[in-house]
Design brief:
The chain contains 14 helices and 16 strands. By secondary structure, it is of the alpha/beta class.
Length: about 425
């Protein structure tokens, strides 16, 4: 029986792969107007079907609560009328972006008269594997479409009803614009064998895999994928508060970086405070976090100053809590902060709060994470906040895509060389 189920899933995934590859070519040459028409209809359909999407989400939430998942997981899964409005708005924002396909990135002339252009092209077929975030269905579908790519979406079993409800709105947009409906496909089964099939590349149908989810999912994808992967394993994000930082600004940024939404990958997990500012900044920052309901895990040095904090262990410096918990340490200025971050960071997002330009310059120069912020919350680590209209995820690798993965990151390029009869001697 299990062999039959696996055979059926393999056959299903092979069909999905072939359909995606077939849709990729006409999509790659679709006009900007045609793609934008599809995106506008998608946004309108999401708003028109708000009640149906909320009803589907209620089924997912009931199941999740019954299984006893963490509060941060429920937050990522939950849709509200306001969040659905935000999803539709993000799709419209993507429609308003410049079409990257065909964009001339660079051009130059050679002494022999050849004119060379580097031009953006779609990647082809993108596989997106994600958990618990129904909004990714719309974000990924819209971004891939804008960049001229076909996409295969495999959401988690926890969000299957919500994702399918949103996906139907995307298909309606494709049909309205006369684009192939298989350009955006949603894997209709929750069996993990479907993920394995996608990681194999579906017989060459998939060009890139983008995972968005927990550490175990991303680790599996990076370990098993037979095609290139855009991914980050976890978001161990740091905030460093320098002695030159204005206290009121630092307090607002630290509180927002940790507590705005604790379950997102841009949530701060470690707070580093300049030892030279311990007398002025430490207590107000820690007390602000405690008052907001955040558990503070601190070094013995800090606990000697502020009693009743939870002791920090070495494991805390490498833990992505995704919860109302933060680890706190004093460091010897910017040098100590750089040393700590470079040792423990996952190369996702770090922030420095400082008014000393030399401190900021060292932070930006000597730390090599994908996103670095000065006097701003780590929660801005988001493609939408970068003006990209949305993102599929944050990439922390150094090849091709890094940081928010938006429409430009979902393209490759080719060279166009124009001559007037030149031959090589």
């Amino acid at each position: 029986m299990l062999d039959q189920v696996r055979t059926d899933i393999d056959a299903l995934m092979d069909t999905i792969g072939r359909d995606a590859r077939a849709a990729a070519r006409p999509l790659s040459i679709a006009s900007a107007e045609q793609k934008n028409r599809a995106l506008e209809v998608m946004a309108a359909e999401i708003l028109a079907n708000r009640d149906a999407i909320l009803a589907a989400n209620a089924l997912d939430l009931a199941s999740a609560k019954e299984s006893g998942v963490a509060a941060s997981f429920l937050d990522r899964l939950t849709l509200t009328p306001e969040r659905i409005d935000g999803i539709a708005s993000a799709v419209r924002d993507i429609a308003g972006l410049k079409d990257p396909v065909g964009d001339v990135i660079a051009e130059w002339d050679r002494p022999n008269g050849l004119h060379i252009e580097r031009v953006r092209t779609p990647l082809g077929v993108i596989g997106v594997i994600y958990e618990s975030r129904p909004n990714v269905t719309a974000d990924a579908g819209a971004l891939c479409l804008k960049a001229g790519n076909a996409v295969i979406l495999r959401g988690g079993s926890d969000s299957v009803n919500s994702s399918q409800a949103i996906h139907s709105c995307l298909v309606a947009g494709l049909k309205a614009a006369g684009l192939p409906e298989h350009a955006i496909q949603y894997v209709p089964v929750t069996d993990r064998a479907a993920v394995g099939a996608m990681l194999s590349g579906l017989g060459g149908a998939i060009d890139v895999i983008v995972p968005r989810g927990g550490k175990s999912l991303v680790a599996r994808v990076q370990s098993e994928a037979r095609v290139p992967v855009f991914a980050h394993l976890e978001g161990l994000c740091h905030v460093y508060v320098d002695k030159s930082a204005r206290l009121e600004m630092a307090r607002d940024i630290v509180l927002n970086a940790k507590m705005r939404r604790t379950g997102v990958c841009g949530s701060a997990e470690t707070l580093l405070i300049d030892r030279a500012a311990a007398d002025t900044h430490l207590a107000p920052l820690v007390e602000g976090l405690l008052a907001a309901g955040c558990e503070v895990r601190a070094t013995d040095e800090i606990r000697a100053r502020i009693p009743n904090l939870v002791p920090a262990t070495e494991a805390d410096w490498s833990t992505e809590y995704l919860d109302a918990i933060i680890s706190v340490s004093l460091v010897d200025g910017i040098s100590g902060a750089i040393e700590h971050i470079n040792r423990w960071s996952s190369a996702h997002t770090e922030a420095v709060i400082a008014d000393d330009p030399d401190v900021v310059e060292r932070f930006f120069t000597e730390i090599d994470s994908a996103i670095l912020l000065h006097n701003a919350s780590t929660q801005f680590a988001d493609g939408g906040e970068f003006g990209m209209g949305g993102e599929i995820g944050i990439a922390t690798g150094k090849m091709h895509a890094r940081g928010p993965v938006g429409v430009e990151q979902l393209t490759s390029f080719k060279y166009r060389v124009r001559g007037t009869g030149q031959v090589r001697p």
